[in-house]
Design goal:
It catalyses: Hydrolyzes free adenine bases from 7,8-dihydro-8-oxoguanine:adenine mismatched double-stranded DNA, leaving an apurinic site. It holds the Pfam family HhH-GPD. Its EC number is 3.2.2.31. This protein is mainly α. It is built from 15 helices and three strands. The chain has two domains: 214 residues, Hypothetical protein, domain 2 (Endonuclease III, domain 1, Orthogonal Bundle); 62 residues, Arc Repressor Mutant, subunit A. The chain starts with 8 loop residues before the first helix and ends in a 9-residue tail after the last strand. The chain binds a DNA duplex through α2, α3, α6, α8 and α9.
Length: 313
Amino acid sequence: MPAPHHQSPATITELQETLADWFERTARPLPWRAPDRTPWGVLVSEVMSQQTPVARVAPVWLEWMDRWPSPAAFAAASTADVLRAWGRLGYPRRALRLQECAQAVVERHGGEVPEDEALLLALPGVGAYTAAAVMAFAFGRRSVVVDTNVRRVLARTVGGDALPMPALTAAESARAARLAPVADDDAALWAASSMELGAVVCTARAPACDRCPVSHLCAWRAAGYPPDEHAGRRRTQTWKGTDRQARGTVMGALRASHGPVARRVLDDLWPDAAQLSRCLGSLVEDGLVEQVTGDGAVADAAYQLPGGAGAQD
DNA sequence: GAGGCGTGGCT
DNA sequence: TAGCCAAGCCT
């Protein structure tokens, strides 16, 4: 069943052209949008921005690109340095995958980010969104970029709904593909401008419709702002006492330490010993942590970031 | 396809 | 206050 489509082709065209003009006037000067940007810089920014607000990404990205300006430079870094540079961006497995990605770019593509969506998609840590985003934002090529911002903007302006479904549906993907302009530069600008609208105006909590350049075209507004039909069906994420919190606590301690951290130190940070053991095991399994001593005796074990104590504070 | 996976700001 | 939310990916 196709998603409801409340807009005429002429309205879609006006939506695209209005957003393009608005974007070119008001786009945020994000560092990875600078004229001297590189495909590698764009790819790094996209991976860092997966589930992390861009305001937190920007300073890390600047340091990162200064230190490792190319895939080849980054591919040779130590895991401990990579994880410390990643800092508190969250989901540190992304940092490991980004390095695997750099290594794959060197091995498969001679150190150059490929201008090919299928080859991008085959890289570690690169999914449908990131591959499409790199095609559009690094190469100016047509692609169908569907992130949480685009989903919300299309749900409102075209679908007339307050919010999209909790998970991406086939109907949504089909609608996004249908709406993407044919020409490379038009499609790339549409991807950037529809994302930007969702990020700075058409936000989830408090959309700024009074500042929206396309409010006069918006199907949700025309329908009288009906409330979210799926309210309550969105599962709330528990946090306190979870393995995720325990893993984050361990990673924070290891990032902050020059040398190995003893198990008894970690015991003081996380009192549930069984859960701590389980999480240390999963962190080692993930390649985020290395056990350096212990010889099987839990009480004598110590842990560090893989590859050594690190070269900086 | 549902669930796991960090972190911090905002309401 | 305690959820909700943020340029997803992988299994």
